[in-house]
Amino acid sequence: MNDLHNQMPSAPDDTRPVMISVNGVTLAFGPKVIQHDVSFEVKRGSIFAVMGGSGCGKSTLLKSMIGLLRPTQGRYLVGQDNYWAGDDASRVHIGRRFGVLFQSGALWSSMTVGENVALPMQMFTRLEPPVIRQMVELKLGLVGMLHAIDQYPSELSGGMRKRAGLARAMSLDPDILFFDEPSAGLDPITSARLDELILNLRDGLGATIIIVSHELSSLFHIADDGIFLDAGQKTAIAHGSPVWLRDHCTDPVVHAFMHREQLDSSSPHGDG
Ligand SMILES: Nc1ncnc2c1ncn2[C@@H]1O[C@H](COP(=O)(O)OP(=O)(O)OP(=O)(O)O)[C@@H](O)[C@H]1O
């Protein structure tokens, strides 16, 4: 099959600089290779989707991009910095540019929302407490959660926890945000609101966003680029925006995945 069919042609007017460059990366747990020879570029200001069936290695890829799993081969460039080439301190330094939102929101339950958002600033900056308070209010205002500043995570709904987690991910003004299944467990309306919030963050703050998600409707709406990882071939088999892959990709695995919603809605046993 002609590989050009599985690769979105570069838009001639896309002059955005490359933010992250991934070259020939192999990911493995011991002898078990999860993905090999994965290469792609994430443009500044894009919302980049990591797609693929369950267990193909999407979260593993994200983990290795944020420093939790060293690739066995290949390299990640973040700007000009070779992420895994340096020591832990250099990775922490580069990682100061990252904000991460995990599935659960991962808030500390013993701290209020405001204290959760303040924590990274207290740990990594020398800002005075009143300045931190102002910054916390600003971040919570951005995600529409200022009213919950003194509440505990257990008092929040799932969507509110996600928004609070997002405020904490933005605590140190990252220019690169990683989201792992941000809309998991949310109802469709809350999930749609989160999509709008993610678009606002990209447009308002100029952030670059890498997102792992199963929610096709959300990906079609927000992501403008992406990669499709295959569990069988253990590598990336298509590149492009979710909409482009849905409409143009000829690979049968990608095609079936990107048209899954139609199958799901006509089958009571769709696995979503
Ligand atoms: N710590 C680990 N040790 C060994 N194998 C692991 C570990 N973490 C993940 N795996 C395996 O790596 C593969 C990829 O897992 P990963 O969670 O990255 O997939 P995924 O595409 O994110 O899946 P899903 O969409 O279901 O969340 C799976 O086969 C999983 O069992």
From TrEMBL:
Q: What PANTHER family is this protein classified in? A: PROTEIN TRIGALACTOSYLDIACYLGLYCEROL 3, CHLOROPLASTIC
Ordered alphabetically, the record's keywords are: ATP-binding, Nucleotide-binding, Transport
Task: Report the superkingdom from the record.
Answer: Bacteria
Q: What InterPro entries does its record include? A: AAA+_ATPase, ABC_transporter-like_ATP-bd, ABC_transporter-like_CS, P-loop_NTPase
Keyword ATP-binding part of the UniProt annotation: yes
Q: Which PROSITE patterns match?
A: ABC_TRANSPORTER_1, ABC_TRANSPORTER_2
Give the GO molecular function terms.
ATP binding; ATP hydrolysis activity
Mind telling me which SMART domains this protein's record contains?
AAA
Tell me if GTP-binding is a UniProt keyword of this record: no
Q: What is this protein called?
A: ATP-binding cassette domain-containing protein
